[in-house]
Amino acid sequence: MKKITIAIDGFSSTGKSTLAKQLAQKLQYVYVDSGAMYRAVALYTLQQNLIQDTILDTESLIKHLPSIKVTFQYNESLKASEIYLNGENVNTEIRSMEVSNAVSRVATVPEVRQQLVALQQQMGVHKGIVMDGRDIGTVVFPDAELKLFMKASAHTRAQRRYDELIGSGTDVTFKAVLENITSRDHLDSTREDSPLFKAADAIEIDNSNLSLDEQFDKVLALVQSKL
Ligand code: CDP
Fold it and tell me: Which of 39, 79, 207, 214 is the most buried (most CB within 10 A)?
């Protein structure tokens, strides 16, 4: 059976990872959350006090890069991969608001991107992969057979992320979530290295008014047309 590469890009909280997981499960493909890798580096940066109020000590972070090891390990009972930072499972920690507020600044550093993009490309050498992020169809896998670009209104996205955070017991306000999303959208799409934009050959999916099932059916038909 032919295997393809599926690249899913888009703004924060557009449901990229939900769709990517559904696709990977259906097709028996590997799913990689590239954002989790940037979040792990951001967590390291916070742990080492290399960032304070979004002021990043870029030079020190670059010096530390050789000692930052980001890996994934499959968790049999969760039926999902979990992310590790230097051997420690940080799957939950990387979702904190603190990390969310630091990550897009860390993701502007070209040396960080080079290190993570190399890892991402390695994971995709055999195809049969679904990866979501901001630069997957443009930089990581420019030759991906299927590229999707996900959109939804900022309010819809903030509501989704707020519900998720509250559901997981995080004490957060809707305003803080909306602010984080809009500021990350801005940083992600205006940075110099690998900014977020829709690849010319990506298919745009606005899911503000689509149910998960409707979206999945639509995308599955696209996948089938490529196989
Ligand atoms: O919160 P959400 O799930 O939408 O974001 P994420 O996928 O966890 O990514 C967190 C942040 O990492 C993004 O806001 C970007 O700044 C950065 N990122 C990136 O620069 N390139 C990627 N391929 C993936 C994420």
Answer: 39
Q: In testing the pocket of ligand 1, which one of 8, 11, 12, 189 has its CB within 8 Å of the most ligand atoms?
A: 12
Specify the DSSP class assigned to residue 95. Answer: G
**Parallel, antiparallel, or unpaired: how do β-strands 51-52 and 55-56 relate?**
antiparallel
Ligand 1, atom 13: nearest CA belongs to which residue? 104
Which residues span the domain enclosing 170?
A: 5-220
**Each residue's pLDDT tens digit, 31-67:** 999 999 999 999 999 999 999 988 999 999 999 999 9
**Spatial CB neighbours of 163, under 8 Å, sequence gap ≥ 6:** none
CA of 194 to the centre of ligand 1 (A): 12
Number of domains in the chain: 1
227 occurs within a structural domain: no
Residues 6+ apart with CB under 8 A from 6: 20, 23, 29, 129, 130, 131, 144, 145, 146, 147, 148, 223
Determine the atom of ligand 1 nearest the C-alpha atom of 9: 23
Three-class secondary structure assignment of 6-42: EEEEECCCCCHHHHHHHHHHHHCCEEEEHHHHHHHHH
Q: What is the CATH number of the domain that holds 149?
A: 3.40.50.300
Any domain includes 226? no
Q: Is the CB of 34 under 6 A from ligand 1?
A: yes
Q: Is 112 in the pocket of ligand 1 (CB under 6 A)?
A: no
The packing angle between helices 97-106 and 174-190, to 10°, is: 10
